[in-house]
Amino acid sequence: MKRTDLFAPVWRRFRRSRLAIAALIYIALVSLIALFAPLIATNGTKALVPFAPNDAQLVDRLQPPSVVHRLGTDELGRDILSRMIHGARVSLTIGLTATLISLIVGSLLGALAGYYGGAIDWIVSRLIEIVLCFPFLFLVLGIVALFRPSMTTLMIALGLTSWTTEARFVRGEFLRIRELEFAQAARASGARDVRIIFRHLLPNAFAPVLVAASFGVAAAILTESALSFLGVGVSVPTASWGSILASAEENIDYAWWMVVFPGLAIFLTVAAFNVIGDRFRDALDPRFE
Amino acid sequence: MRSYIARRIAYAVLTFFGITVVVFALIHSVPGDPISFYIGRAGGVTLSRTGLEAIRRAHHLDRPLVVQYGWWLKGVVTLDFGTSILDGRPVVDRIAEKLPNTFLLNLLAFLVAAAIGIPVGLWSANKPGRLFDRGSAVTFFLLYSLPSFWVALLMMKLFAVKLNWLPLFGMTSDDYLDYSTAGRVIDRIRHMILPVATLTYSQLAIFARFSRSATTDVIRQDFITTARAKGAGNSVVLWRHAFRNALIPIITLLGLTVPYLISGSVIVEQIFQWDGIGHLYFESILGRDYPMIMALSVATAIVTLLAGLAADVLYAFADPRIRLGESSR
Fold first, then answer.
1. Chain B contact for A125 (CB, 8 A cutoff)
2. ipTM metric
3. Based on the structure, what is the number of domains in chain A?
4. Does residue A61 lie in a domain region?
5. pLDDT tens digit sequence for B10-58
6. Under an 8 A CB cutoff, do B285 and A134 touch?
7. How would you class B297 by CB atoms within 10 Å of its CB: exposed for 0-12, middle for 13-18, buried for 19 or more?
8. In a mutagenesis test of the B interface, which of A17, A91, A127, A130 is the best target, namely the one with the most B β-carbons within 10 Å?
9. CB contact under 8 A, B145 and A142
10. What is the mean pLDDT of the segment spanning B273-299?
11. Residue A230 domain-assigned?
12. Whether B19 and A245 lie within 8 Å, measured CB to CB
């Protein structure tokens, strides 16, 4: 059986949700914008948004949305739209990389625990329990602020604190499938453990992990923006959705545009990843039909 | 039953040690000790070399790591977390001072979320697929995706700046002391509305989803069909028969939401200048107040641990299937 045969019905069920398709299109669009941010929003009349993200024009400070500054300017006269476009880069990079780290760490530990059981399973399970005891933001905040706050620190901190969901999923799947016929057949044919784990078992356990990953990206983006909002995320003057909101708080008396637009961007992106995860989970489980 | 609880407690003790090791290892893998960080900050003020050594010794920072851990663990067990580097007061005193403020906010948020979320979940499960079910699912889902600090900002903008109905931040007004007793109570409540609302809304989704799935499981069972067959009305079936059984899995939410609420406190207390644990933690992070950071990290992790333990034990008491299943093993 080919893998596509397994995936086709899932995709068919997923496609049925218009909300999920809209979310996919939205994510694709934001990804493109993030990818080409330096071309879209930069100084020069040819650019779509003719302002660089850190281009401060004090004369134009705190301008409401207009034809020139479509989403207004901040307290230093920087174009909000341009900063948001570059902020998308920060949010997506951190969200995706952090999730990739937690995916790798979680899958590996979960696979080891589920495949070997016994002492390894016991140790991994205790480790998961310990990590789960820490309020997520407390732990991330601690790591990020104690070490130098930077994009790398953020990604590592987020990745290393959120792998438990993936680990539990993979462990559960491994416990379920390790004694199935195809696994036994692989073992009988003399395959080594490493090959059985990575070639035979892991691909079969991957679908639920992708669901967890989709929720994980949403959570990582949310946390990154919260940390940047608190001033311990990406360092100034790098534009990030959260840091625009931080300066919005200081100007909350009149600059409504600084509050509304970046928040909307965070909300839509987080919601899109959550919707994809949710509908993908439903699509994987035919009982919902 | 007793063996089940004993085993859970044994694991909890083990997890406790794990927590302390993680916190200690984390703090001490940070480059530079708190004293040298302090000098970098103090600027003009110069401390003598011997003065620095004295401070180091007082905080046991000159001893090997294992010894430092031993000292610290002894303190943790006896609730002596040392003194704050920032203001020299005992860490425990400062935490005890702020704890009621955080507890009040979180308790209110928990209760409001439960009071709204559980009935909504129940009604959704009663008529699955109907407009109410689908509408509430989508609404809560969207609420869950909203960044809390944005919601807080929007509410501040609307209710405090624009409409001027509620105070922008703080726990009391500036002229609080001039108020009568009733005025003070009202003033405090007015300051609580926005923070509690911010903490509540994302919890709603969790409560509604959880109680919906719990009720759905119960409604499918035979005794509900029996109750309906007897001719019991829909609301009687729902509230008398289904609700009580659906409440059991909801107990586990107690353990699940605690770390969530504590995390939320950091953001909410920072935005609304609420003088609680989250605010204190953030301050100590910025000031590298090591004893305080360690104390708060350990304390919140232990609170989470205890909440999970309490939920499991309560669950075992409430649901005979669990404890019987365990003892027959």
1. no
2. 0.83
3. 1
4. no
5. 888 999 899 988 888 887 777 666 566 555 444 445 566 676 777 777 7
6. no
7. buried
8. A130
9. no
10. 87
11. yes
12. no
A226, A232, A271 member nearest B142 (Cβ)? A271
Local structure of B163: helix, strand or coil: coil
**CA distance to partner chain B, nearest, from residue A258 (Å):** 11
Contact between chains at A126 and B11 (C-beta distance less than 8 A): yes
The whole-model pTM stands at 0.86
On whether residue A268 sits in a domain, the answer given is: yes
- Residue-wise pLDDT tens digits, A63-97: 788 877 777 777 777 888 888 898 899 999 999 99
Q: How does DSSP assign B227-291, residue by residue? A: HHHTT--HHHIIIIIIHHHHHHHHHHHHHHHHHHHHHHHHHHHHHTT--SHHHHHHHHHHHT-HH
Q: A230 and B300: CB-CB below 8 Å?
A: no
**What is each CA distance from B235 to A124, B137, B222, B295, in whole angstroms?**
46, 21, 17, 49
What is residue A98's predicted lDDT score, i.e. its pLDDT? 94
Minimal Cβ distance to A135: which of B168, B263, B286: B263
Q: How many CB atoms lie within 10 A of CB B34?
A: 20
Give residue A28's pLDDT: 95
Q: Which domains does chain B possess?
A: 1-86+291-329 (no CATH), 99-286 (1.10.3720.10)
| B158 class by beta-carbon count within 10 Å (0-12 exposed, 13-18 middle, 19+ buried) | middle
User: Given CB atoms, is A248 within the 8 Å cutoff of chain B?
Assistant: yes
CA B295 to chain centre: 16
Beta bridge partners of A73: A79
Q: How far is CA B262 from CA A137, B105, B154, B210, in A?
A: 8, 10, 22, 20
How far is the C-alpha of A182 from the C-alpha of A198, rounded, in Å?
A: 14
Residue ranges making up the domain that contains A154: 16-38+79-98+135-165+200-288
Q: What is the pLDDT of residues A176-199, one digit of tens each?
A: 888 888 888 888 888 888 888 888
Centre a 10 Å sphere on the Cβ of residue B289 and count the other Cβ atoms it contains: 24
Give A264-283 pLDDT, tens digit per residue. Answer: 999 999 999 999 998 888 88
Residue A44, domain member (yes or no): no
Query: To the nearest whole angstrom, how far is the Cα of A182 from the nearest Cα of chain B?
Result: 31
Q: In angstroms, what separates the C-alpha of A46 from chain B's closest C-alpha? A: 34
